[in-house]
Specification:
Number of helices of chain B: 0
Shape of chain A: globular
Low-confidence stretches of chain B: none
Number of strands of chain A: 11
Helix content of chain A: under 10%
Number of strands of chain B: 11
Largest interface: A-B, 30 and 27 residues
Radius of gyration of chain A: 13 Å
Largest sheet of chain A: 7 strands, mixed
Low-confidence stretches of chain A: none
Oligomer: heterodimer
Strand content of chain B: over 45%
Mean pLDDT of chain B: 93
Helix content of chain B: under 10%
Shape of chain B: globular
Structural class of chain A: mainly beta
Structural class of chain B: mainly beta
Order of helices and strands of chain B: EEEEEEEEEEE
Strand content of chain A: over 45%
């Protein structure tokens, strides 16, 4: 049973560029959430997707956008990258009919130079 | 903003000892989940305790929840060097779907 997968593992971009991160949920899960984790901090919620719609959004600017596909996989897009966007980006999947028990992928380490 | 607050921030023990970490939160919750993270990698789900449960066990892990005090504790018994990691509590609030994490407890288990 495959768990949550994310790609790429690492990414280096320069300020002003755009980036797309990808996530495939755990088999059987229909909901995907994205989190940003800065060094030494806990994960911060960016948004959650269910039925291809953004269901809830955290306190992040519009530069952060996402998408969920019919197969439940998801993308996170960040435009006009800032140095402060450097972080570990975590994808989590869950079953909307369950307890909101979220299972995380290994993350994508984004470095903005 | 971060909802849960773990205490202590850092904990250092020897193999075989027990490790206890605490978590406090502010709003009403559906459940509380504990996660482990090794060296900045992905989070591993350890255990979920519902708001109507007071205690839960999984292997060497024991979690308690006191909703009247808005607090939880994670006990790891007979710690091993492989338990060295950061531990986070995450609350699932009544009002939404986002998990709210604290800053975590950094656990070091020395042989």
């Amino acid at each position: 049973d495959a768990g949550v997968t994310q790609s790429p593992t690492h990414l280096i971009k320069t300020r002003g560029q755009q980036v797309t991160l990808r996530c495939s949920p755990k088999s059987g899960h229909d909901t995907v959430s994205w989190y940003q984790q800065a060094l030494g901090q806990g994960p911060q919620f960016i948004f959650q997707y269910y039925e291809e719609e953004e269901r809830q959004r955290g306190n992040f600017p519009d530069r952060f956008s996402g998408h969920q596909f019919p197969n439940y996989s998801s993308e996170l897009n960040v435009n006009a990258l800032l140095l402060g966007d450097s972080a570990l980006y975590l994808c989590a999947s869950s079953l909307t009919s369950g307890d909101n028990e979220q299972f995380f992928g290994p993350g994508t380490r984004l470095t903005v130079l | 903003s971060q909802q849960g607050e773990e205490d202590p921030q850092a904990l250092s023990i020897q193999e075989g000892e027990n490790a206890t970490m605490n978590c406090s939160y502010k709003t009403s919750i559906n459940n509380l989940q504990w996660y482990r993270q090794n060296s900045g990698r992905g989070l591993v789900h350890l255990i979920l305790i519902r708001s109507n449960e007071r205690e839960k066990h999984s292997g060497r892990l024991r979690v308690t929840l006191d909703t009247s005090k808005k607090s939880s504790s994670l006990l790891i018994t007979a710690s091993r060097a492989a338990d060295t990691a950061s531990y986070f509590c995450a609350t699932d609030p009544n009002s939404g779907y986002a998990l709210n994490f604290g800053k975590g407890t950094s656990l070091l288990v020395t042989p």
